[in-house]
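Action item from last week, closing it out:
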Amino acid sequence: LCRSEIGKLQGADGGAEFHKLVKATKNSVPHQSYSRLGFVVKDELECVELLQIAVQTLQSNQKAWNHPKGIHFRPNGIDTTSEELVALFAGQGSQYVGMGKELANAFPEVADAFQRTDSLFAKNGEDTLSKTIFPIPVFSDEERKEQQLALTRTRAAQPAIGAFSMGQYKILHKSGFQPHFTAGHSFGELTALWAAGVYDDDTFLALAKTRGAVMSTENPDADRGTTMAVEASLDQVQAAIANL
């Protein structure tokens, strides 16, 4: 199949064949037992290049593999009837300047999450968060460090990670990904609760912003709250906090 597609893409109507292939793959849902090959390209020339690499690799390796060029192969799909899937969400420290810019340009889910978070900041008379995530480009190491430091501050980092994680998860969920469990590292626990349906979008984004603000070292007098680890069942916990 790879060789067949290469032949079509190298033909006189390569551009049209590329668009046909893109359309076909968008609407294709392979059976769990079928092999699958995945990559992202911008045109038919790059598509031919990656397909040629895939052919060469498949000739020597029919097991699951990932190529440095961004090509991914599995001889079959994940059997979700015997293997359970988890969505694991990132915690504070995973932020970086410009994160998600490609996804925000390509997927409304990501852009919407950033815009909704911006509105929370603007409502309080603060600079929008997207100015910190996507600042005006600079050309010195010192200025780049300053921009990264601004995003690293807890006040910005937590809502930024929350908004980006929300957008990413919505893309995956829309594509058919449905985990059996959700979990998160540190701040990511908040995202995991949202993904599990504990609260809605607006509540999650507001909680992410509030958590970042109260934990920020910029305000030493603020109530930063506390964390409690409880070894008890859900019924016991609900009974304990019922009258709070």
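Closing note: The chain has a mean pLDDT of 92.
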